[in-house]
Amino acid sequence: MIQVENLTKFFGQRKAVDGLTFEVREGEILGLLGPNGAGKTTTMRILTGFLSPSEGHVRIDGIDVSKEPRKVRSLLGYLPEEVPLYRDMTAEGFLCFVAQLKGIPKTVRHAAIEKVTELCKIQEVRNRLIGKLSKGYRQRVGLAQALLGSPKVLILDEPTNGLDPKQINEIRELIKSLKGKQTILLSTHILPEVSAVSDRVLIINEGKLVAQGTPEELGERLRTGQEILITVRGDVKIVKPAIHRIPGVISVERVEAHGPQVEVYKVFCDKTQDMRGFVARILVDSGFELLELKSDTMSLEDIFLKLVTKEEAPQPDVAVLTAPEV
Amino acid sequence: MSNILAIFSKDVRSYFFSVTAYVLTTIFLILSGFFFSSAVSYFSFYSFQLSSQPFLAQQGLNLTEAVIGNLFFNMSVILLLMMPILTMRTLAEEQKQGTFELLMTYPVTESELVWGKFLSTLFVFGAMLLPTLAHLLLLKIVGGNFEWGVVLTSYLGIVLLGVAFLALGIFASSLTENQIISAVITFGFLLMLWMIAWLNEFLPPETAAWANDFSLIRHLEDFFKGVVELRNVVYYLLLSGFFLLLTIWRLESRRWVR
């Protein structure tokens, strides 16, 4: 549904988006994950045709965005990050205005507005001024304008930004309920959100694609080694080197004490096959009292952090200051 | 076309929903009314004095020139001060609120947006101007003797001048997210175009003629005398078209930057 090829965008000297290539399949919910300033908003703005790419192509439903922007826009529903609305209009007046601009014929306009007000649960505030609505309602009005006219593709930039937990849940449920009917690309810097709603995740950092796949696939792929947490009774000075001597163990780290002489260790192994049984047997054979052993799988959070934090010397402050916020 | 209409009616509603349109119209009417009534009293004072001096009375006083010309000239000065307020928020506010981005993700072109904005400000301007007819009707009722033809051409001149003001104001508004900056740019630029004719005395004749051709006010004088000259009409229309085109380009330019 959405094909992005080698997308690059410069702002002056700065590369905001750097050679992004990805695809969103029809009916899929794709999560675009990245820290603030990773280029998510810029990517989405290019997808909607608001900005043009420095290099590369974007095709939506087979139509090139830069060649036929108007045609593409009629397929799109877009919710920008800071939901921009006319504060002096009523929710219904605003949706009516949007319906006109989206070219929804007069005969079905009313029904279309009715449908989205119901879907986004804004019936009770439809005649109130947008400026007087709470943030949660405003966000829903924003979502309603994106959904208006049932566009094939929805692009949602941080749809749960600034909402309280209950509202976040409601918006997520709403997005999930659209699954299969519409193709959805949503961005976020909040991890649980991606695993909660998306089928696939795209992690970008500094404008580059660093990983993609289902949340599970990502966990699998990034597990280069294996981490095992073991609890052993014994003196640290003896136990730690003993664990380290086990073939296949790269490093051992004492995590915490669990009472006198009981310590928890984090063991990194380089083998991709399961090392748990092997490690347990050796420890018991060596006469240690093994109290607990479990493998430590990486959460999406760990994967994300591992991908976006590079262990480099910190860059000079000047460079950070001159980079404009996008 | 339906897009232009949608933007037009949204903006007109917003002007009349907020107090902007009412405040502008009221202040405009108070000021123009003040200048008008003082011109009328001045006129009646002099005509009374002249009636006691038969020699001067023969030359006669011209109500059309003294009062009508005066009224329209004063209106143009008031507009110079007020039009930047009318146009300052048009595009600046859309850009600041981010609604510009939203509009541009609908199947709407930049030129439709600019036309919608322009027509909505033109509508408010019309609403400001229309009640001034009351001044003239009142003068007619009390027996004022003036020519409606001159009134008509004067209105045409004022409308053309206003259209140029609006086009320049909308362009200034597209340059910034800040309404104040937009108003200041508009006012500064309008004033420069206004005053350029004052340089005449200091400039060599060729340059002076050139400066005259650019002046917003020089092209107005003929209209107030009841003369519609094509070159004056063309001047205002060209100026307006030029700035509207610049506005469209300015909005499109975000996509040119690669």
> What is the number of strand segments of chain B?
0
CATH topology of the largest domain in chain A: Rossmann fold
Number of helices of chain B: 13
Percent range for β-strand residues of chain B? under 5%
Supply Rg of chain A: 25 Å
| Low-pLDDT residue spans of chain B | none
Q: Main sheet of chain B? A: none
Description:
The complex is a heterodimer of chains A (326) and B (258). Chain A has helices spanning 40-47, 69-73, 91-101, 106-119, 135-147, 165-177, 191-197, 215-222, 236-245, 276-285, 300-308, 317-322; strands at residues 2-11, 14-24, 29-33, 55-60, 63-64, 76-79, 153-157, 183-188, 200-205, 208-213, 226-233, 249-257, 262-269, 289-295. Chain A has 326 residues and is an alpha/beta fold. Chain A has 3 domains: 1-75 and 152-223 and 300-326, Rossmann fold, CATH 3.40.50.300; 88-146, no CATH class; 224-296, Alpha-L RNA-binding motif (Alpha-Beta Plaits, 2-Layer Sandwich). In chain A, helix 3 packs across helix 4 (106-119). Chain A starts with a strand and ends with a helix. Chain B has 258 residues and is an all-alpha fold. Chain B has one domain. Chain B is 80% helix and 0% strand. In chain B, helix 9 packs parallel to helix 13 (230-256). Chain A binds chain B through residues 10, 45, 48-54, 70-71, 73-74, 76, 78, 80, 82, 84-89, 93, 97-98, 100-103, 145, and chain B through 2-3, 5-7, 10, 13-14, 17-18, 97-99, 101-109, 254-258.
TL;DR of this structure?
The complex is a heterodimer of chains A (326) and B (258). With 326 residues, chain A is an alpha/beta fold.
Task: List the keywords.
heterodimer, A: 326 residues, alpha/beta, Rossmann fold, Alpha-Beta Plaits, four-stranded antiparallel sheet, 14 strands, disordered C terminus, B: 258 residues, mainly alpha, globular
